[in-house]
Specification:
Layout (H helix, E strand, L loop, with lengths): L59 E6 L5 E5 L5 E6 L4 E5 L3 E4 L3 E6 L4 H10 L6 E6 L4 E6 L4 E8 L4 E5 L3 E5 L3 E6 L3 H6 L5 E6 L2 E8 L2 E6 L4 E4 L4 E4 L4 E6 L3 H6 L5 E6 L2 E6 L3 H9 L16 H4 L3
Antiparallel strand pairs: 1-2, 2-3, 3-8, 4-7, 4-11, 5-8, 6-7, 9-14, 10-13, 10-17, 11-14, 12-13, 15-20, 16-19, 17-20, 18-19
Length: 312
């Protein structure tokens, strides 16, 4: 398309000529070709016989760059994935089994990264994966992707040198090689053991970008000094190390028996920021457990309770 006044070339959808300022002619109504979508919505597509199938790309919710030069994009809205693009020699790592896909020039190497034998021992008694896997690009740019296994959000955490964040157990997805990963045990073992998810946490130390997968939607609060927020332990996603975290037993005989909130609550005391998640995996598992097949005394499994599933 050209400007009617000066003849300059105009890009599609331009409203005026950037050379002379004249109004651009309205776009002509073109006849759609076979196999092409008539809608301008990128999420709409057609599949005609013999034509190439082009599926719409997922939504890119975030882009960024790491400390080592790694570029990333978080894709999807509910079940997200993060795709990392690495230059030759750049390395990222994840827990064993975390990778979703990667290019052919990525070198994968399993190691005991994270504190040597002591780190492996701590990971073993905490139930975490014993080994971590490193991914290094060779001979050119490479990509490696990590996907969440639960509806929620993948959050990039850009840590400065020595900066730390404490995240829920199994939140860690992947990180640049400069990021330190360690297990955070609670000081009071008694309440920690009985308090469920609050006993074992993960500590991430900068510099570098780390990615965590959190459950459901995320709510952030900033606590002032000595300000307290009490939370069901499963809803604690992350917090800054300046926040004091403790697990306490629910007070009151009636609250324990009839409150329905569990025996323990997490107490977070400021100063510092905390991040809460709306749909802990454990809560969802409990909600669907009643619909799963039940094992009878003879050892056979019954069918799914369709009445409960359909709300009858």
């Amino acid at each position: 398309m050209q400007c009617a006044s000066c003849g300059a070339d105009l890009a599609p959808n331009m409203r005026f000529c950037t050379k002379c300022g004249a109004a651009a002619p309205p776009p002509s109504a073109a006849t759609p070709t076979a196999g092409a979508s008539e809608s301008t919505d990128p999420a709409v597509y057609t599949n005609q016989p013999g034509q190439r199938l082009d599926l719409p790309s997922p939504t890119v919710t975030m882009r960024g760059q790491g400390t080592t030069g790694m570029e990333y994009q978080v894709i999807g809205t509910t079940l997200q994935a993060v795709v990392l693009e690495l230059d030759p020699g750049e390395t990222v790592y994840s827990e064993s089994g975390g990778m979703a896909w990667m290019s052919g020039n990525m070198l994968m190497q399993t190691s005991g990264r994270g504190g040597g034998l002591g780190g492996i021992f701590k990971r073993a008694i905490s139930g975490e994966s014993l080994f971590l896997v490193e991914y290094t690009s060779q001979g050119g740019k490479g990509i490696v992707a990590f996907a969440s296994d639960f509806p929620g959000k993948i959050v990039p955490i850009n840590l400065g040198p020595g900066q730390e964040i404490i995240a829920q157990r199994q939140a860690f997805l992947c990180a640049e090689k400069t990021v330190g990963l360690d297990i955070q045990f609670r000081r009071r073992l008694g309440s920690g053991f009985f308090g469920g998810e609050g006993f074992v946490m993960q500590r991430l130390t900068g510099p570098g970008v780390a990615f965590v997968a959190l459950d459901g939607e995320i709510m952030e609060y900033t606590l002032a000094a000595d300000q307290v927020l009490k939370v069901d332990t499963g809803h604690v996603a992350m917090y800054e190390p300046t926040v004091a975290f403790d697990v306490e037993m629910m007070k009151g005989f009636r609250n324990i028996l009839f409150g329905g909130e569990g025996l323990f609550l997490a107490t977070l005391r400021g100063p510092g920021r905390i991040w809460l998640q709306t749909m802990p995996m454990m809560n969802l598992a409990k909600a669907i457990a009643e619909y799963l097949p039940k094992t009878t005394s003879s050892g056979s499994s019954g069918g799914i309770n369709l009445g409960n599933l359909l709300g009858d």
